[in-house]
Amino acid sequence: MTHFDPTYAPEEMNATSRTSVLAVLSFICGLICCVPVTSIPAVIMGVLALGLSAGKPHVRGKGLAIAGIVLGLIGVLLQAGVWFGIVTPLNRLSLAVLQPGLSGDVIGVRANFTTAADASMTDDEITAFFSGIVAQIGAPTSSSFSISAYGQAPNLQPPPGTTVVPLPYTLVGPNGSMSVIIWIDTNQSSSVSGMPLIDHVQAGSFTAPTMELPAPGSAPTPVAAPTVDPARTAPPAEVAPPPSGGSSSDGDG
After folding, report:
1. Residue 12 Cα to chain centre, angstroms
2. Structural domain tally of the chain?
3. Each residue's pLDDT tens digit in the chain (253 positions)?
4. Which domain holds residue 126?
Protein backbone atom coordinates (compact mmCIF):
# COMPACT_ATOMS: atom_id res chain seq x y z
CA MET A 1 0.00 0.00 0.00
CA THR A 2 1.36 3.37 -1.03
CA HIS A 3 1.57 5.95 1.73
CA PHE A 4 1.45 9.68 1.02
CA ASP A 5 4.52 11.48 2.25
CA PRO A 6 3.55 15.06 3.18
CA THR A 7 7.20 16.10 3.14
CA TYR A 8 7.55 15.24 -0.55
CA ALA A 9 7.29 18.04 -3.10
CA PRO A 10 8.52 18.41 -6.66
CA GLU A 11 11.87 20.08 -7.14
CA GLU A 12 10.18 23.13 -8.62
CA MET A 13 8.12 23.66 -5.48
CA ASN A 14 11.18 23.46 -3.23
CA ALA A 15 13.18 25.84 -5.41
CA THR A 16 13.59 29.36 -4.12
CA SER A 17 11.39 31.87 -5.88
CA ARG A 18 13.41 34.27 -8.05
CA THR A 19 13.01 36.82 -10.81
CA SER A 20 14.38 36.07 -14.25
CA VAL A 21 17.50 38.10 -14.94
CA LEU A 22 16.73 38.05 -18.68
CA ALA A 23 13.29 39.51 -17.99
CA VAL A 24 14.79 42.35 -15.97
CA LEU A 25 17.41 43.08 -18.63
CA SER A 26 14.76 42.99 -21.33
CA PHE A 27 12.67 45.56 -19.48
CA ILE A 28 15.66 47.84 -18.85
CA CYS A 29 16.78 47.70 -22.49
CA GLY A 30 13.23 48.36 -23.61
CA LEU A 31 13.07 51.50 -21.49
CA ILE A 32 16.15 52.86 -23.27
CA CYS A 33 14.29 52.75 -26.57
CA CYS A 34 16.08 55.81 -27.95
CA VAL A 35 19.35 53.89 -28.26
CA PRO A 36 19.49 51.66 -31.35
CA VAL A 37 21.61 48.96 -29.73
CA THR A 38 19.08 48.24 -26.96
CA SER A 39 15.70 47.83 -28.64
CA ILE A 40 16.46 44.61 -30.53
CA PRO A 41 18.23 42.98 -27.53
CA ALA A 42 15.18 43.89 -25.44
CA VAL A 43 12.97 41.82 -27.73
CA ILE A 44 15.39 38.90 -27.89
CA MET A 45 15.97 38.70 -24.13
CA GLY A 46 12.24 39.05 -23.44
CA VAL A 47 11.45 36.10 -25.69
CA LEU A 48 14.22 34.03 -24.11
CA ALA A 49 13.00 34.90 -20.63
CA LEU A 50 9.49 33.70 -21.44
CA GLY A 51 10.79 30.50 -23.01
CA LEU A 52 13.19 29.58 -20.21
CA SER A 53 10.68 30.30 -17.45
CA ALA A 54 7.88 28.25 -18.99
CA GLY A 55 6.79 25.49 -16.63
CA LYS A 56 8.84 26.94 -13.78
CA PRO A 57 6.42 28.57 -11.33
CA HIS A 58 9.25 29.69 -9.06
CA VAL A 59 10.72 31.90 -11.80
CA ARG A 60 9.01 35.26 -11.84
CA GLY A 61 9.28 38.17 -14.28
CA LYS A 62 6.81 37.21 -17.00
CA GLY A 63 5.30 40.71 -16.88
CA LEU A 64 8.72 42.34 -17.14
CA ALA A 65 9.61 40.18 -20.13
CA ILE A 66 6.39 41.07 -21.95
CA ALA A 67 6.88 44.76 -21.18
CA GLY A 68 10.46 44.56 -22.46
CA ILE A 69 9.30 42.96 -25.72
CA VAL A 70 6.62 45.61 -26.26
CA LEU A 71 8.97 48.50 -25.48
CA GLY A 72 11.66 46.99 -27.68
CA LEU A 73 9.28 46.73 -30.63
CA ILE A 74 8.17 50.33 -30.10
CA GLY A 75 11.82 51.40 -30.06
CA VAL A 76 12.50 49.56 -33.33
CA LEU A 77 9.54 51.29 -34.99
CA LEU A 78 10.59 54.70 -33.69
CA GLN A 79 14.14 54.24 -34.90
CA ALA A 80 12.92 53.09 -38.31
CA GLY A 81 10.75 56.21 -38.53
CA VAL A 82 13.64 58.46 -37.59
CA TRP A 83 15.92 56.73 -40.06
CA PHE A 84 13.62 56.88 -43.06
CA GLY A 85 12.05 60.21 -42.17
CA ILE A 86 15.12 62.22 -41.10
CA VAL A 87 18.44 60.43 -41.59
CA THR A 88 17.78 59.28 -45.16
CA PRO A 89 16.90 62.81 -46.41
CA LEU A 90 19.95 64.19 -44.59
CA ASN A 91 22.15 61.62 -46.30
CA ARG A 92 20.69 62.68 -49.63
CA LEU A 93 21.70 66.24 -48.82
CA SER A 94 25.31 65.21 -48.23
CA LEU A 95 25.38 63.28 -51.49
CA ALA A 96 23.97 66.29 -53.36
CA VAL A 97 26.93 68.34 -52.10
CA LEU A 98 29.74 65.81 -52.23
CA GLN A 99 29.09 63.91 -55.44
CA PRO A 100 29.34 66.92 -57.79
CA GLY A 101 32.53 68.09 -56.10
CA LEU A 102 34.16 64.68 -56.18
CA SER A 103 33.33 64.33 -59.87
CA GLY A 104 34.73 67.76 -60.71
CA ASP A 105 31.34 69.38 -61.35
CA VAL A 106 32.04 72.88 -60.04
CA ILE A 107 28.75 74.26 -61.35
CA GLY A 108 26.86 71.47 -59.57
CA VAL A 109 28.59 72.36 -56.29
CA ARG A 110 27.75 76.04 -56.64
CA ALA A 111 24.08 75.25 -57.21
CA ASN A 112 23.83 73.91 -53.64
CA PHE A 113 25.32 76.98 -51.93
CA THR A 114 23.71 80.26 -50.95
CA THR A 115 24.20 83.24 -53.22
CA ALA A 116 26.65 84.84 -50.78
CA ALA A 117 28.72 81.66 -50.42
CA ASP A 118 28.74 81.07 -54.17
CA ALA A 119 30.05 84.59 -54.79
CA SER A 120 32.85 84.24 -52.21
CA MET A 121 34.55 81.08 -53.52
CA THR A 122 36.54 80.49 -56.66
CA ASP A 123 36.57 77.43 -58.88
CA ASP A 124 40.13 76.67 -57.72
CA GLU A 125 39.03 76.71 -54.06
CA ILE A 126 36.21 74.27 -54.80
CA THR A 127 38.56 71.92 -56.65
CA ALA A 128 41.20 72.14 -53.90
CA PHE A 129 38.66 71.35 -51.15
CA PHE A 130 37.42 68.14 -52.72
CA SER A 131 40.90 67.14 -53.88
CA GLY A 132 41.99 67.42 -50.24
CA ILE A 133 39.31 64.94 -49.20
CA VAL A 134 40.35 62.42 -51.84
CA ALA A 135 44.03 62.87 -50.93
CA GLN A 136 43.36 61.84 -47.31
CA ILE A 137 40.81 59.02 -47.54
CA GLY A 138 40.60 58.23 -51.25
CA ALA A 139 37.37 58.46 -53.20
CA PRO A 140 34.59 58.22 -50.54
CA THR A 141 32.45 55.12 -50.80
CA SER A 142 29.80 56.07 -48.22
CA SER A 143 28.48 59.01 -46.23
CA SER A 144 26.44 58.71 -43.04
CA PHE A 145 24.81 61.26 -40.75
CA SER A 146 26.51 61.23 -37.31
CA ILE A 147 23.98 62.05 -34.60
CA SER A 148 26.49 61.22 -31.85
CA ALA A 149 28.78 64.02 -33.02
CA TYR A 150 26.56 66.64 -31.38
CA GLY A 151 27.53 65.31 -27.97
CA GLN A 152 31.24 65.06 -28.82
CA ALA A 153 32.00 68.41 -30.44
CA PRO A 154 30.97 71.57 -28.57
CA ASN A 155 31.62 73.63 -31.71
CA LEU A 156 28.61 71.99 -33.36
CA GLN A 157 26.28 74.62 -31.98
CA PRO A 158 24.39 77.06 -34.22
CA PRO A 159 25.62 80.63 -33.72
CA PRO A 160 23.06 82.61 -31.71
CA GLY A 161 20.77 84.79 -33.75
CA THR A 162 21.45 83.01 -37.04
CA THR A 163 19.59 80.50 -39.18
CA VAL A 164 22.68 78.39 -39.92
CA VAL A 165 22.59 74.81 -38.60
CA PRO A 166 25.45 72.22 -38.63
CA LEU A 167 24.92 68.72 -40.02
CA PRO A 168 27.79 66.31 -39.16
CA TYR A 169 28.67 63.43 -41.47
CA THR A 170 31.28 60.70 -41.58
CA LEU A 171 32.86 59.94 -44.94
CA VAL A 172 34.42 56.51 -45.44
CA GLY A 173 36.96 55.82 -48.17
CA PRO A 174 39.44 53.09 -49.02
CA ASN A 175 42.18 54.85 -47.02
CA GLY A 176 40.22 55.77 -43.91
CA SER A 177 37.44 58.07 -42.76
CA MET A 178 36.93 61.80 -42.38
CA SER A 179 34.44 64.06 -40.64
CA VAL A 180 32.52 66.60 -42.68
CA ILE A 181 30.24 69.33 -41.32
CA ILE A 182 27.71 70.85 -43.70
CA TRP A 183 26.32 74.15 -42.39
CA ILE A 184 22.92 74.80 -43.98
CA ASP A 185 20.86 77.98 -44.00
CA THR A 186 17.35 77.01 -42.95
CA ASN A 187 15.94 80.21 -44.44
CA GLN A 188 17.11 79.47 -47.98
CA SER A 189 16.28 76.49 -50.16
CA SER A 190 16.95 75.35 -53.69
CA SER A 191 14.25 76.19 -56.22
CA VAL A 192 15.02 72.92 -58.00
CA SER A 193 15.40 70.27 -55.26
CA GLY A 194 13.73 72.10 -52.38
CA MET A 195 16.65 71.22 -50.07
CA PRO A 196 18.20 73.88 -47.82
CA LEU A 197 21.11 75.77 -49.33
CA ILE A 198 24.59 75.52 -47.82
CA ASP A 199 26.37 78.34 -46.06
CA HIS A 200 29.75 76.58 -45.77
CA VAL A 201 31.34 73.13 -45.43
CA GLN A 202 34.14 71.99 -43.09
CA ALA A 203 36.21 68.81 -43.25
CA GLY A 204 38.86 67.10 -41.15
CA SER A 205 37.39 66.32 -37.72
CA PHE A 206 34.29 67.37 -35.84
CA THR A 207 36.24 69.19 -33.14
CA ALA A 208 39.01 70.73 -35.27
CA PRO A 209 38.23 71.01 -38.99
CA THR A 210 41.27 71.53 -41.19
CA MET A 211 39.54 72.53 -44.46
CA GLU A 212 36.67 74.86 -45.18
CA LEU A 213 34.66 75.96 -48.21
CA PRO A 214 34.37 78.87 -48.80
CA ALA A 215 37.78 79.46 -47.25
CA PRO A 216 37.67 81.56 -44.03
CA GLY A 217 37.97 85.25 -44.80
CA SER A 218 36.90 84.88 -48.41
CA ALA A 219 35.15 87.95 -49.71
CA PRO A 220 32.55 88.01 -52.44
CA THR A 221 34.09 88.37 -55.87
CA PRO A 222 33.56 91.98 -56.95
CA VAL A 223 31.41 92.42 -60.01
CA ALA A 224 33.06 94.67 -62.57
CA ALA A 225 31.03 97.69 -63.54
CA PRO A 226 29.98 97.68 -67.18
CA THR A 227 32.19 99.75 -69.44
CA VAL A 228 30.56 102.67 -71.12
CA ASP A 229 31.60 104.16 -74.45
CA PRO A 230 31.75 107.95 -73.96
CA ALA A 231 31.00 108.47 -77.65
CA ARG A 232 27.67 106.67 -77.25
CA THR A 233 26.60 108.46 -74.10
CA ALA A 234 27.68 111.99 -75.05
CA PRO A 235 24.74 114.33 -75.61
CA PRO A 236 24.08 115.20 -79.25
CA ALA A 237 25.76 118.32 -80.53
CA GLU A 238 23.59 121.40 -80.51
CA VAL A 239 22.53 122.68 -83.92
CA ALA A 240 22.88 126.46 -84.26
CA PRO A 241 19.63 128.19 -85.18
CA PRO A 242 19.51 129.97 -88.56
CA PRO A 243 20.46 133.69 -88.49
CA SER A 244 17.52 135.97 -87.83
CA GLY A 245 18.57 138.67 -90.35
CA GLY A 246 18.84 136.67 -93.57
CA SER A 247 18.55 138.16 -97.14
CA SER A 248 15.04 138.63 -98.58
CA SER A 249 13.93 136.62 -101.56
CA ASP A 250 11.83 139.55 -102.97
CA GLY A 251 13.57 141.93 -105.45
CA ASP A 252 12.67 145.47 -106.59
CA GLY A 253 11.32 145.05 -110.04
Report:
1. 56
2. 2
3. 555 454 444 554 555 777 778 778 877 877 776 566 677 777 788 888 777 777 777 777 788 888 887 887 777 767 666 555 555 666 666 666 788 888 889 998 999 899 999 999 999 999 999 999 999 999 888 888 887 888 888 888 877 788 898 988 898 999 999 999 989 898 888 887 777 889 999 999 888 889 999 987 665 544 444 555 555 555 555 555 666 555 444 545 4
4. 103-213
In a domain, 23, yes or no: yes
Q: Is the pTM of this model over 0.70?
A: no
Q: According to DSSP H, which parts of the chain are helical?
A: 11-14, 21-31, 36-53, 62-82, 88-102, 106-110, 115-119, 123-137, 149-152, 230-233
- Do 180 and 94 meet the contact criterion of CB atoms below 8 Å apart? yes
Kindly give the residue spans of alpha helices, DSSP state H, lying in 83-148. Answer: 88-102, 106-110, 115-119, 123-137
Question: Reduced to 3 states, what is the DSSP secondary structure of residue 201?
Answer: strand
Say how far apart CA 126 and CA 214 lie, in whole Å: 8
Burial category of 128 from C-beta neighbours within 10 Å (exposed 0-12, middle 13-18, buried 19 and up): middle
